[in-house]
Specification:
heterotetramer, A: alpha/beta, 2-enoyl-CoA Hydratase, Chain A, domain 1, eight-stranded mixed beta sheet, 9 strands, B: alpha/beta, 10 helices, 34% helix
């Protein structure tokens, strides 16, 4: 099976992989690398992408993406941005602490920032609901993105959630609908949007704020349709088979890049982002700047349509 | 740690509270039993208690489209296996089995149709095909239906029944959310109406994408419409769930659907809407 | 004082009144009259506008506007429109029965309809909350108006509320903010909008859905910043002085027309709309059609700007 | 019958729960007493308990605008009496008395200013002028401030304090809601920022129009921000009111304001926002 390193990927996949790798080698896809000058590392990463990552490598990403010392959105905000002013409330029902949003200065200009926010200690985790938003959080995100669109501020989103909160009230308040509306909102914006998955990109609750012109992932982030435990519980009928499940559905950055889901991988400091928040922030900042620079000059309507086309084209199917 | 599950494609068949599995033609609410032709003649609604049995995609099209007007499109599209996915069974085997069991190439059937003499595009999901899960092929067929609708200037009617994204396609299945949302955005730009009929169950990735973005949202009575199903909510939060948790009736009370329409009224109701949007 | 018929209106008012009357005589401002052929009645109404209405006349309007047999929104909908499909829900929290909204056919075309809805009997009154919306109702109104705007359906709104609901939950859900946003929404729409006050046009809760290209009032409707009882309680410190208050703040249609707040008065059957729902509906339908016809052909952006200018210009002040 | 009151211009001065009327310089929360110059030196905030006393419009401008930068506009605008309104007293007499008492032509002062060296338009409402009620003149001066802001491309900062619409102008006062909303719409079309500082009390017609439409809404601690004040809610519904009913803190919890900012922080906070929106 695919989780097993010696198994062969399907024919179609091999074809796609080869095509993508050809392009990859010509593109500065590992964002931030060029700036930090680690070109050898770029080479090595491309080699690693060429090889099917092992189950152990995939699982290592899962562990690092959830590492309790990993930087969260506000850790990056305080290191990367100046004059951050957090804005609160969905103007309807609540302010959801699982999503932070606001305005800040980045490289001398004003930008809007939206990100999931986990908590570091027990108290803050509870307050932030472990980074799992209610519909109120997505409404706040929509509001701030509309504000940014009106005043022509570029938008950065940082994605880091196990998923949207699966609770009774969240359902009653329209969790599914607001995840959908948040995506529709982002598809329609005329300002540049760069998203980066900085930890767990968990399912609909993650993609809700990741409909961007450029989608990045940190080297050890994961982005997935379901948690490994959830997948294992359903398909293997045993949540402890999470490692096997992760290897099968491949939530790691390298696979996401290969599948065309993300545009680049943001390097982390040696050992992972949790080892050095400052270094991780510097690398992320460079990547955000590079990615923004690529789309910043484009005509707004053209950029919006390119974003739509980007997502319209996602997926693999065959016509026999 | 994230032990929550918000996409379940295998086990949502009987997620409605208080409804255990029975024979396919036994009413889970009142235990009335029917022959297939009896049920079909009553649109697969229990004549005793009004329970709405699931309807297969082809049966739904026969119920809704004017006779002889449905013209299927993209029937030849098939799912690839981009991840070489293998759990207890290979994804390719699951696809082959589902196709054998349903006679369909994937979990959605789409094409041109007329409902009550109003031309439209009609896309109907098939829950029997891997829990109506949305992979690249379902997303693609929905997006193409949007594009055909916009090109023709005909409304798109979509009947949803889905456990969510198809996890065997990994992250690409999650990408079907923004992909179908993009298609809806283009449809809206063309000012072409989208009407969804949410049948049991409409959950997770389908509820969290195109289904919720319709101009008008109609639900079938008793349908589960939830981002996260009751079992997972219960397991994750240990909350006591309301009796009608996630059901169409609850969604209606909380303002998420425009109307709950009984199956016997569905065709004329859609006809009226299509006339208004014509 | 002004409530007293023999008192003199201020100089500025006299000037405005004369100006307006000059225009009035040249315009088909009493909508529906031309069609129903009661030209003599038009003349008499103009004469009545010319005279300062008496306190009794104003109070009579207040009583008729609140008459328990007066037709409500759904009474008109069933008589004036075909194929009405009511749409429900604010997609966030609830469906507010104090506001009804939907699509229907009017004179062979599709229109959107939004209106306050009171209840006829005790049970329905409770269900409809006496026509006093929560923020949820205004969100539903916004949603349906956005739907209409997308699909280019003209919008009719029927105004009939004592006011937005003054309750704890309504406040917590943002009553003031949603009344504001509903007005902003209407200012921004590119489709034609015609509003008619059909009963009580009570304060912010009424104007929230009355930001239209043409605003009409039925002959015996009232439109006011506060209820007569409320005004009396505050200014006279005695709610039973409501009649005096009403005479002072002049909520009747003739004064509203004179002050430039509405564009026309919709005649009612003899004795008032409650005497004959069918006849009242026919007169209202003619007026809606006439008003829509006046704006229907205008270029959408120009119509939107004209609507904005219309409300921008409201009020009387002096620059010494 | 409509016996409800949602606009009160006379009696909202002490609508905050648990705060009875005292001398103007006695803290209603901790009973500390101050001389005028003491209070002014501390921005009219109680040094003991942090209670925010009301600030008059001119005082607010002095607190917020950089010295010498405020340049008033439309100071000559005065309210007319379109209805010849007379209750226990003539409206014209009330206007004259309010002007005598406040030295202002109406309940708002507007003009060009700079806050922390950032140019802006500044419009400040005066509650002491007929309860900060909004009649045609207030609406006009706000609308003109919007237009000047859009013309100059400078953000508009508005400090609100109002009992609502000015009922002595009848329906024309209600029309100031859509009028100011129209002005905000034009401001937004010009992509010019609007920031509101909601001071105590911001209620009824002002909350239900321009104040709530700002890009960023800041509230002062303890300010009553309600469409309907607690007394009327209590009288009308007989509901038990939460202790913090309608207060800034409650509005913050329910998602209606971006931040509650203490008066001592207000000027630098606005300066940061203006820099971000520059
Ligand atoms: Zn049954
Ligand atoms: Zn004190």
């Amino acid at each position: 099976m695919a989780a097993d390193p010696e198994s062969k990927p399907g024919q179609i996949e091999q074809l796609r992989l080869r095509e993508r790798l050809t392009k990859l080698r010509d593109l500065p896809l590992l964002r931030g690398v060029g700036v930090s000058g680690e070109l050898g590392r770029l080479e090595r990463q491309i080699e690693r992408i060429a090889a099917e990552p092992s189950a152990d490598e995939v699982w290592h990403s899962v562990e690092l993406a959830r590492h309790q010392d990993r930087p969260y959105t506000l850790d990056y905000v305080e290191r990367i941005f100046d004059d951050f002013v957090e804005l609160h409330g969905d103007r309807a029902l609540a302010d959801d602490p699982a999503i932070v949003a606001g305005l800040a200065r980045f490289r001398g200009r004003t930008v809007a920032l939206v990100g999931h926010q986990k908590g570091r200690d027990i108290r803050e985790r509870t307050y932030r609901n472990f980074g799992m938003p209610y519909p109120e959080g997505y409404r706040k995100a929509i509001r701030i993105m509309e504000l940014a669109n009106l005043h022509r501020f570029p938008i950065f989103t940082l994605v880091d959630t196990p998923g949207a909160y699966p609770g009774v009230t969240a359902e009653q308040h329209g969790q599914g609908g607001w995840i959908a509306r948040c995506q529709l909102e982002m598809i329609g914006l005329e300002v540049p949007i760069v998203s980066c998955v900085i930890g767990e990109g968990g399912s609909g609750g993650a993609v809700a704020i990741a409909v961007a012109d450029r989608v990045l992932m940190q080297e050890n982030a994961i982005y997935s349709v379901i948690s490994p435990e959830g997948c294992a519980a359903i398909l293997w009928r045993d949540a402890s088979e999470a490692k096997k499940a992760a290897a099968a559905f491949k939530p790691d950055a390298r696979h996401c890049l290969d599948l065309g889901v993300i545009d680049g991988i943001v390097p982390e400091p040696p050992g992972g982002a949790h080892m050095d928040h400052d270094a991780a922030s510097a690398l992320l900042a460079e990547s955000l700047e590079t990615a923004l620079g690529e789309i910043d000059g484009n005509e707004p309507k053209a950029r919006r349509l390119a974003r739509r086309d980007r997502f319209r084209g996602m997926g693999v199917f065959v016509t026999p | 740690m994230a032990s929550r599950i918000d996409v379940s494609i295998e086990n949502r068949r009987d997620d409605r509270p208080g409804e255990a599995a029975h024979g396919p033609n036994t009413c889970p609410r009142c235990r009335s039993h029917y022959r297939d032709d009896e049920l079909d003649a009553n649109l697969r609604v229990c004549a005793q208690c009004g329970y709405h049995f699931p309807v297969r995609a082809r049966g739904r099209i026969a119920q809704l489209a004017d006779g002889g007007t449905f013209f299927e499109q993209d029937a030849d599209l098939r799912s690839a296996d981009p991840l070489g996915f293998f759990d207890l069974k290979a994804y390719t085997d699951r696809l082959a089995e589902a196709e054998m069991a349903t006679g369909l190439g994937d979990a959605i059937v789409a094409g041109a149709a007329a409902i009550e003499r109003r031309p439209c595009e009609l896309a109907v999901m098939e829950f029997a095909f891997m829990g109506g899960s949305m992979g690249s092929t379902v997303g693609e067929k929905f997006a193409r239906a949007c594009e055909r609708a916009a090109d023709r200037g005909a409304p798109l009617v979509c009947v949803t029944a889905s456990g969510g994204a198809r996890m065997q396609e990994g992250i690409l299945s999650l990408m079907q959310l923004p992909k179908t949302v993009s298609a809806v955005d283009a449809l809206r730009e063309a000012r072409t109406p989208l009407l969804t009929v949410m049948a049991h169950p409409t959950t997770a990735g389908v509820l969290a994408s195109f289904a919720s973005l319709a101009d008008v949202i109609v639900a079938e009575p008793g349908a589960l419409l939830a981002f996260t199903g009751p079992r997972v909510v219960q397991q994750t939060t240990r909350e006591k769930l309301p009796d009608d948790f996630g059901l169409a009736e609850s969604n209606s009370r909380f303002g998420h659907v425009d109307a709950i329409v009984r199956r016997s009224d569905l065709r004329p109701y859609l006809g009226r809407l299509l006339a208004l949007f014509a």
